[in-house]
């Protein structure tokens, strides 16, 4: 028995003095990358996949339009709707919305406004074409079809 | 003097620092959404002035690669019916690089290509004259699903990015990663697409079968 007891116990405590530093590092990472959600999404958003994605250089130029079936179908119906900021709008309101978004930008950048269209997979081309017609009327012709990455195997 | 004041313990109790940091960390973990501003860029055509008649463009049928997609998500590519868009990128690339009957501009462009791209010119009489003339036309229906449209548009873009990349000795992916921030990548980017604009035309959907 005494043979087993002879083993000296190593000090098993982990030094925790550096723990706050590690946690702080993680904290700063998330603080920097975080974007607080300033709007509630009222429509379904299953973003389609594509392979030829491009990233825009200036994020400040992007305004978002969400298109999809409303989540609250009893209130808004089941037809795809367009959400701008935090309200559902109809197609003719888009021109006014674009002008408001454009006025928020500094004067030199107003020509480069880009509309990121976050469209649900199940939407048909009809509503999208209506929105694009309005965007052309508003002369906001740079459109980004938001999509997530996909890899082709060829 | 101030020195005479008795000094108590000057150390802040740092034991609970980790807990506070954890609390903040968890808050930001929960509220964070990784920014995803990636997508496929498209430039819409300008609004038509009702007082000016639309420009009458005469183009040879062979210079237009037509893709029609109907409300059942069936495709009609250059008059041929098919169920899925697989392989379209290769066909579009062959079409653009055909050089059937190049114009002066086309010949000048051809001479800037590296040998690997020049070898891909099939010179078929029934396909496009040269890349400056070639147009890829995508026409959908109001009932076409957005997902399929995006897939086809994606493939058309892929064909062009393949060509741009090959021109400067990169793969399509590497070419797309070029940011244009510094002079070197900007030069590569410009050299890839010089005199060869992406001619992808998206026609307004027709009304049958949609809502």
TrEMBL record, chain A:
List all membrane-crossing ranges.
12-36
* Similarity comment text for this entry: Belongs to the ExbD/TolR family.
Protein name as annotated: Biopolymer transporter ExbD
InterPro entries cross-referenced by the UniProt entry: ExbD
Q: Does the keyword Transmembrane apply?
A: yes
Keyword Transmembrane helix present in the record's keywords: the answer is yes
Q: Which UniProt keywords apply?
A: Cell membrane, Membrane, Protein transport, Transmembrane, Transmembrane helix, Transport
Where found in the cell?
Cell membrane
Organism domain of life: Bacteria
Q: Specify where it is mainly localized.
A: membrane
Organism of this sequence: Algoriphagus oliviformis
Mode of membrane association = Single-pass membrane protein; Single-pass type II membrane protein
TrEMBL record, chain B:
Q: Which PANTHER family match?
A: BIOPOLYMER TRANSPORT PROTEIN EXBD-RELATED (PTHR30558:SF3), EXBD MEMBRANE COMPONENT OF PMF-DRIVEN MACROMOLECULE IMPORT SYSTEM (PTHR30558)
Any one Pfam family here would be ExbD
- Protein's cellular compartments: Cell membrane
Q: State the family it belongs to.
A: Belongs to the ExbD/TolR family.
- Protein keywords: Cell membrane, Membrane, Protein transport, Transmembrane, Transmembrane helix, Transport
Principal location listed in the UniProt entry: membrane
User: Signal peptide location in the record?
Assistant: none
Q: What is this protein called?
A: Biopolymer transporter ExbD
Could you tell me the membrane topology recorded for this protein? Single-pass membrane protein; Single-pass type II membrane protein
Q: Which InterPro entries match?
A: ExbD
Classification of source organism: Bacteria, Pseudomonadati, Bacteroidota, Cytophagia, Cytophagales
């Amino acid at each position: 028995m005494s043979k087993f007891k002879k083993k000296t116990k190593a000090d098993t405590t982990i030094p925790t003095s550096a723990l706050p530093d590690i946690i702080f590092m993680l904290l700063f990472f998330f603080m920097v990358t975080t974007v607080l959600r300033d709007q509630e999404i009222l429509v379904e958003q299953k973003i389609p996949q594509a392979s030829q994605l491009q990233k825009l250089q200036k994020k400040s130029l992007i305004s978002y339009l969400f298109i999809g079936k409303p989540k609250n179908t009893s209130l808004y119906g089941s037809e795809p709707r367009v959400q701008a900021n935090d309200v559902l709008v109809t197609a003719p309101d888009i021109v006014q919305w674009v002008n408001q978004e454009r006025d928020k930008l500094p004067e030199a950048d107003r020509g480069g406004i880009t509309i990121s269209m976050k469209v649900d997979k199940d939407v048909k081309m009809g509503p999208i074409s209506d929105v694009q017609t309005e965007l052309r009327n508003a002369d906001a012709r740079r459109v980004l079809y938001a999509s997530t990455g996909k890899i082709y195997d060829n | 003097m101030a020195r005479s004041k008795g000094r108590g313990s000057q150390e802040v109790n740092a034991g609970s620092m980790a807990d506070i940091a954890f609390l903040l960390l968890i808050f930001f973990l929960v509220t964070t959404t990784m920014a995803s501003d990636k997508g496929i860029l498209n430039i819409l055509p300008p609004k038509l002035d009702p007082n000016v008649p639309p420009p009458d463009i005469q183009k040879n049928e062979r210079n237009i690669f037509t893709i029609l997609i109907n409300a059942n998500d069936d495709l009609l590519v250059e008059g041929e019916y098919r169920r899925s868009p697989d392989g379209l990128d290769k066909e579009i690339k062959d079409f653009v690089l055909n050089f059937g009957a190049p114009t002066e501009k086309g010949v000048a462009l051809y001479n800037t290509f590296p040998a690997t791209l020049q070898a891909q010119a099939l010179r078929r009489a029934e396909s496009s004259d040269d890349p400056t003339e070639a147009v890829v036309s995508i026409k959908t229906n109001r009932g076409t699903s957005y997902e399929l449209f995006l897939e086809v548009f994606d493939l058309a873009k892929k064909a062009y990015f393949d060509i741009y990349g090959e021109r400067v000795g990169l793969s399509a992916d590497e070419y797309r990663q070029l940011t244009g921030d510094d002079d070197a990548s900007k030069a590569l980017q410009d050299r890839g697409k010089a005199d060869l604009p992406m001619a992808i035309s998206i026609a307004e959907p027709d009304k049958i079968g949609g809502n």
